[in-house]
Each structure stands twice: as C-alpha cells, then as structure tokens.
Design brief:
Shape: elongated
Order of helices and strands: HHHHHHH
Distance between the termini: 22 Å
Strand content: under 5%
Largest sheet: none
Helix content: over 70%
Number of helices: 7
Radius of gyration: 16 Å
Length: 156
Amino acid sequence: MTVSWRKIELARAVWGLGLLCAPRWTLHRVHRIEVDATSVWVARVLGARQVAQATLSGASPSPEILALGVWVDLAHASSALALAVVDRSRASAGLTDTAVASVWAVRGWHDLRVAPVPRPTHDRRRDAMARAVLGRVPGGAPLRRMVRARREGEPA
C-alpha cells in the first residue's frame, strides 16, 4: 500500500510546534493578544493536541481516524468561538482559532468522503479506539455512520 501524506497535516504540525515551542511569540504575533501565564499554558496544550493529531492523521489515515479528527476540530472550533463570545479581550484569538479549526474540520470531512480506505489491518487498535470515542461523544454517531459507509464501500 502506498503511503499518502495529507499536506494539511504538515501545516497542523508546524502550527502545533509553534504553540509548543514558542507560545509567547506565536500568540503575540498571530493572535495579537496580551500574553499571560494562562495563555502560554493553553497554547502549549493546544500545540500538543495539534502535533498529536497531525501525527495520527498525517499519513494514510483510516476513515475512523479522519472522523475522529473532524470531531476534535469541530469541538476546538466551538470552544474557540465560545471563548470569543465570553472574553472580549481574546475575541480576535478565539475567532482566528475558530476559522483555522473549521478549515481543518472541512478538509477532514472532505478526506473522509473521498480518501482511499486502507486495508482493515491498517491499525486495528487505533481504529477501534476512534470508533469507541465517536460512539460516546456528542455528535459522534453521524461520523460513525460515515465511517461504516466508507468501510462498506458506499459513498459517504
């Protein structure tokens, strides 16, 4: 099987590394917010999440991993939008994060619908974990149905 790397995950990895390794610089330059200790901590947590997701869904991801990535990106976009609404001093940062996470979610949704489906032996444990999580989170059921359809060879 040929490994195909999702180029958008390279951007996610770079963004995540920026948040992990240079959170103050990244927050100040990109989000133009007053950087405090809480901001740095949140940036590093989000950076670690981005790097982990880029690693999991970067090369030949299964439908299960793509679906879980879509869910995580939508949850991120929703929480960032909530931040923008409740904390006006961070509204710009929240809206920027909402936009970026939404783009990643849309791209993941697209790839979930059209990307080649790896063989079932691809990574059973990781795929089983993704199915289990999608079965328990709000809004996960439609994504699980898309995964099932992709596995059965139907168009999503």
